[in-house]
Design a protein that fits this description.
102 residues; alpha/beta; five-stranded mixed β-sheet; globular; disulfide bond; Thioredoxin
């Protein structure tokens, strides 16, 4: 299951992670986010320690959404070494998300 990322654990779980982190910016009221959720969960289950998958509720952590310029949801960012290295906006196939981790 994808981990819940908050303002409190963001630095530890994302910026200081030794492996890439795929972060899904979402909201409970967002229908496209709900459409993307199964692909996010599948990637989380397939990680096997090669990467991490997390979800940030933009309503609970608007500071993080603003910090990374998230204007539309769902937005998926891949962090590596504390930096954003790839980005996807909108509902995309699972394989396209998996390709972001390569």
């Amino acid at each position: 299951m994808a981990m819940e990322i908050t303002s409190a654990n963001f630095e530890q779980e994302v910026l200081n992670s030794p492996v890439p982190v795929l972060v899904d910016f979402w909201a409970s009221w967002c229908m496209p986010c709900k459409m993307l959720a199964p692909a996010i969960e599948e990637l989380s289950q397939e990680a096997n320690g090669a990467y991490k998958v997390g979800k940030i509720d933009v309503d609970a952590a608007p500071d993080l959404a603003a910090r990374f310029g998230v204007m539309n949801i769902p937005t998926v960012l891949v962090f590596q070494g504390g930096q954003v290295v790839k980005k996807s906006v909108g509902v995309v196939p699972k394989q396209q998300l998996a390709d972001l981790l390569k």
